[in-house]
Amino acid sequence: MSETSVAAPADLAELRAMLSAVAGPINFIGGGTDMLIAGRPMPAVGLLIDLSRIAGMAFICADDGGIRVGGATTVAAIAAHRGIATRLPALAEAAAQCGSVQIRNRATIGGNIANAAPAADLVPVLVAAKARLGCIGRDGASRELAICDYAPDRGFLIAEVILPRDGLLPRSAFVKLGPRLDLSISRLNIALLAEFQDGRFGDVRIAAGALGPRPLRLRIAEAALAGRKLEHATLRDFLAALAADVDAAIPGRNSQAYKRRAISGLGLDLIAQAVGLSPRDQLFEDVVQ
Amino acid sequence: MNQLSRRVPLVDGVAKVTGALRFTADLDVEGLLHGALVLSTHPHARVARVDPAAALAVEGVHEVFWHGNTPAHLYNSSIWFSGQKALADEQMFPQVVRHIGDRVAAVIADTEEIARRAARLIEVDYVDVPTIFDPEVALGHAGLPLRQDDTPTFLSPVAGETFVYGDPEAGFAAADLIVETRVTTPRSHHCAVETHACIARPEPDGRILVLSPCQSVFAVQAVVGQALSLPSEKIRVQKTPIGGSFGGKAEPILDPLCAFFALKLNRPVIIRYDRQETFTATRTRSSVTGRMRIGLKSDGRILARETETLVDIGAYCTGGNYLPSSMLQRLVRLYDVPAERYSGRAVYTNTVPAGAFRGYGSPQIHTIAEISLDIAARRMGMDPVALRQRNLVGPGAIEPWQGLDLGNARGRECLARGAEAFSWVGRRQRGVGRGRWRRGVGVASATHINGCYPGFHEETTASLRLLPDGRAELICALHDLGCGADTTLAQIAAETLGLRACDIVIVPADTDTCPYDLGTRASRMTYICGEAIRRAGVSLARSVRAAAGLELNTPADDLRLEAGTVRRRDDAGIALPDLAARLASRGIELPAATESYRAQANPGSYAAHFAEVEVDRLTGRVMVTDYLAAHDVGRAINPMLVEGQIHGGVQIGIGYALYEDVAIDLATGRMRGDSFSRYTLANAPEMPPLRVLLVEEGEPTGPFGAKAIGEIATIPVAAAVVNAVNDALGTELTELPLSPERVLAAID
Amino acid sequence: MKVSLEINGQAVETEVSAALRLSRFLRDVLGLTGVKEGCCEGECGACTVLLDGKPINSCLMLTFQAAGREVTTVEGLDGSSGLQDAFLQLGAVQCGYCTPGMLVAAEGLLLDKSSPSEAEIRHALAGNICRCTGFETIVQAVAAHAATREGACR
Fold first, then answer.
1. pTM score
2. What span, in angstroms and rounded, lies between the C-alpha atoms of B183 and B192?
């Protein structure tokens, strides 16, 4: 029935050659955990390229200045990587909370970005870390773009995710809120990268998912935290700022009333994780009295 | 005694853990064709045109069926036997579709993939007619705005039930406190992991064989017969292994279609729903709005109660017209209420039909009543356990509606022993906390029936016969839905015969070889079928002893059956295979016994459940952190399986309280929760530790004292959880499920 | 297209179409009907198989993507390992439909971690839905079996 043909290139060179040589439509499949969900249309024609076994597309390099993650690296590999857990714990945390064991073993970081779901769990971390994407165009040539400039319909293949050294901050955290603890699509997720020393925040970047078509920076909340001491007044301002960010992101939406309140719980969890405290610490309990 | 109160593993368990057990979609049937349905995308519309041309042009497509080329016989998919009176409003492919997911057409092809692809090519023109999605609106309009061609599609209310007992006015007048509540229960889905499937195969003799994962082969036979206008003897039904049902497979949905297509094409046909079809085109638990008014004395005595229920049965009647009365039946069995008024109505809406779902009205009515009672307890400052204890019925109570004896009703013991084991008093004294997270505890009592007496013919027939190898064959039209009924019933048979459960060979339910039975429903397997089997076992044991008496030259009364041997008092004996061989060598037929058992009672099973929750006041998320279920089961034939029923019932009940809702959009009629990613089920990390406490005081009319557990296991759960949340927050939440939005909205 | 892979320890070489899901290949072509389908969206886990020893949803993978890899279904679990028996003896099986996927997911966990805590077991089984048991006895069975297996290794 299907007009589709398939290819499984062995390495990036073969992939590039294939991209420039093939004239017809090309589609990519990585882990397939989004693409193959019931009810979604499968490509009916053209070439389907399997990315899941390309040497040079699944790797994690976290020993130099920044972090580089191959586009076909599985979410499970990211969750288990020591270097990521040290340099950008938020990414490890987001990966660990993404889907189920079965999904994490197949889903890829490139796929999480390319699928462009509003609630994609890895993306807020990448946005907050100012990630850049090393892409391969339809002509087989490489180009690099900021994650915020990526659009799935432009035909770029995400070969690697680059987390530049200057985008990383010493502390980071990721929290999500879904209908249940495990294996749920986030109704809200937030990532934070921050400087934090002697009880005081320095530079802060925060991004959240499920507050619009794509994850976005929460600038009001960032400003409420940056440069401030971790104390009750800061936390109260921070929670009010989070609500203001929600109001700005989804004014008039049905979910606004709920999300502007619920984000305060996530916000405290986020800070707790970033500074290594329990969310049940008295500091946080005092804020909600 | 060697088989009772034992944790015997499932008799069909090895096939299950090795993956060898073949469910319907796993069966190899030669020449099998595959069907795929076109389901309505409109909630209420005349199907003006179906153009099958493009689908028929696909290679591998055999036929397209729609209302233009299929029988238009009206039928009711909930009937249990042929000739049963019921409002017949279903058709294979109605000309006027009544809900999104109603059937429009079907494609039969060589493979499922081809059938589904071709189904997407069928062009359908719909002419929309006015819709009703809200049951309150349905009640007000009585069906009139649904006219098309001057004929209403349906008329509401489809059924009603009223009942008055005692003097409610006097009761309310004497009350120190009157509490009024309005509780709404959601429309939930069974979510058996096996989706719906059916195979039909034409037989050489002109009959049709239906292979169905069903709850009653005779119900399937009756429904197929009504839909196809075929006499019963033309239809043979065999039960296939069933991957969970919970009532969802009680009504044959695909069976009439498969049977018709197979007969028409003279080829076996399978239809297997995918998950979304299973959500939108099968059955759900009806949603109910309950208004309750309770008048109490300051000491906690209930003086009068008034209940009004409105049941949304969806687009087709099925068995929904029984719901107002079945809810009443279960309501009046729990507390000793001297004055009672009840009024229940059921209405149609343009939504997926309701049907049976583990308790048939009981989860709804007990959820409504138990949340209401807890609100009363809180308002009067009384411990909810003490309030219940004051009003619960006890052994020998007579319920006021049908005048039935409730048997050895041990709801009080469940409550007292459960509260003790749960440290109820201590936990309440500990308080709810004051910060972001609040802890609360909740309790709920419940009761449920044991079988269908006095309605329907609550009667069944069991046959047992000795096999040459010393085992025994059991014929009783049994439908194990995965709960382990086969194992429990085999234990009962084995106990009477001195055998092990694995020595009982169960003949699968088959309309050709088994006597009539109502099927697995109404919590009747252990209590009704178990008693018939016990009687057949006692009778067979007598025959075996008599036969062995001649061989052993001993009076039968001096013989006993033990470990597969008939023994004398001096322990000398003859093994059953040897006995069988000797009888056979003399041309004597092996002993067999058949017993019919007609129920004379319908005692209550009772329970008290205790939940502890933690609520996040910032996000509205509720976690159930601890759970204890105390159940009056008469006697647990197999404690492991009884506990398993309760564990599973709690999973369904927690979902009912907290997240499960197919969520029909009141503007469009579309189901929002039509996949597992949009319909949340409690998974392993979401479940609390579960403790079970069994009260085994024996039920005189039950086999070896046993009574039912299957449905009651889930009935008190939602109320216990909701009551715990209300305890934690000091709220009066009554709209289920308690989504984080609703929780936050309540604690402004 | 031609694909070779190893299934339950046996080399398999066969012609498959591009769009054939691994779950359908295992069920329909190889007759390994212990692999169930319950949702086709990675939510129920009934189709779980091990891919090079790690649990995955076979409904969300195309067959050609498994070329050169090792796939283990419930039929390929070592029946003598005791995990299946623990499920049976502790009542972790009711209707049996989720059981194959649950067993394979549990086996994948134990290959990764020989003595998981109860929380780790629950977390590892989050992608498998059982509607019958409330997961209580499933978690018990995995823990009990892990303890036995650990004991045997020492």
1. 0.98
2. 27
